Amino acid sequence: IQPAPPPPTKMALRRQTSVTSVTRAVAPAKQQREALTVLLADMYQFGVLQGFSCFSLQMRGTEELLVTVSHEPQTLTPLSSPSHSFSSDSGLKRGQLPRNPDSLMLSGRTQRRLSGYGYINIGLPPASPSEHEITVPDEHSTMFLVAGYAKYCCPYVWVRSNHDRLIRLSGCEQTERDNPLKLKTTAEWASGSVTIWDIVCELVTVCSAPPPINPLAVDIGYFENLGIEEAMLASGAMAEFLQRILIHSRGARYETRIQDDLHAVLRVHFAALKAVFDDQALHRASAGLPFPPPEEIEDE
Predict the structure, then answer these.
(1) If you count DSSP H runs as helices and E runs as strands, how many of each does the chain have, helices first?
(2) Can you tell me the distance from the alpha carbon of 214 to that of 234, in angstroms, rounded to the nearest whole number?
(3) Over residues 189-195, mean pLDDT
C-alpha cells in the first residue's frame, strides 16, 4: 500500500488560490469583450437606419454612435407619427428638467473604480471632450454620444450638446460636462439582455418632454418622400430592424405600435418594389427587349 501524499504546503495552497482567481477573472473579461463585439456590430446596423420620429442616428467610426434626440418628438418633422403616440401623463415632465447631476451622472469616484485607472486619477472620459464636437448645436434637440470603447469593455453615454437643459451643473468645468450618464441600460448591459436600441430608448425617455409611449416610432412620411429606389432600400432595412425588435422585445408595452409601424413600412417597401419592377419593364419595352420572367431576375 502506497503512503498517502503529504498535505499541500501553505505556499502551494497560495499558488493554487492565485491561479484560480486569475482564471475566474479572465473568463468574465473574455465574455465582456465578446459581448462588446456583438454590441458594436449591432450599433453599425442600427446606426445607418433613418426614419425614426424621436431621434436621428449617425455612426462615427466603429466605436461611436451619435444620437440626436428631439426635445418634443411630435414636432421633430412635419410628417412625424400621430400625436396619440405620445402621452403627456407618462414619465418626465418639463418641470423636472434640468436634473441633479447625482441622479443622472456617474460620480468621479465611481468612474475611477470602473475605469481601472483610478490609481492615476482617471475616470471614464470620451475620446474627445464635448467642446470639440463639430456638429452645430440645435436648441430643439440634444445630442448624445454612445460609445463602446475597447479600453472600457463596456458601453457608456455622454451628453454632447445642451447640457444645461438636461443637467443642473454646479460649474462650467469641462470635466464635469464630460461625465458619463448613469443609465439603467448601461448598468445592466453586462447581464446580456440589453441592446443598443434599448440604450437609445432610455435616452429618448430621459430627454423628451413628454416622453413618447413608443421611443422607436417610425416616421412613415420620411420614406414616402424618398425616391423610388431609395424608398425601397431604406424601408427594407427598417422593416428588417422592426422584425428583429419584435422578436427581441416581445411583450414590451409598445409592441403593438411597432407592429403597426412594421405593416406601414412594408406597404411602402412593396409599393416601391413594384414601382422599380414596373420601371424596369417600361425601359425594356421601350428598348424592344423582352422582360425576363421572375426566376431569371432572381438569377441575375
Answers:
(1) 11, 4
(2) 20
(3) 85
Grid cell for residue 227: 425616391
87/257 Cα distance (integer angstroms)? 14
Burial class (CB in 10 A: 0-12, 13-18, 19+), 67: buried
> Of 268, 254, 295, 283, which Cα lies nearest the Cα of 51?
268
Cross-strand pairs, 159: 144
Strands of the sheet containing 55-60, edge to edge, are 55-60, 64-70, 141-147, 156-159
* 30 touches 20 (CB < 8 A): no
**129-167 per-position pLDDT tens digit:** 777 777 766 788 899 999 999 888 889 999 888 877 776
Of these ranges, 98-107, 124-133, 180-189, the one predicted with the greatest mean pLDDT is 180-189
**List of long-range contacts for 58-64, beta carbons under 8 Å, 24+ apart:** 63/127, 63/147, 63/148, 63/149, 63/150, 64/127, 64/145, 64/146, 64/147
The C-alpha cell 469583450 sits at 33
- The answer, yes or no, to whether residue 50 has pLDDT greater than 90, is yes
DSSP state of 92: -
| Mean pLDDT, the chain, whole residue set | 75
What is residue 52's three-state secondary structure? Answer: strand
Cβ-Cβ contacts under 8 Å for 88 (sequence gap 6 or more): 210
Q: Which of 158, 176, 183, 191 is nearest to 60 (CA)?
A: 158
Q: How far apart are CA 222 and CA 218, in angstroms?
A: 9
**Beta strands, E only, 97-250:** 141-147, 156-159
Q: What would the grid cell of residue 203 be?
A: 435616452
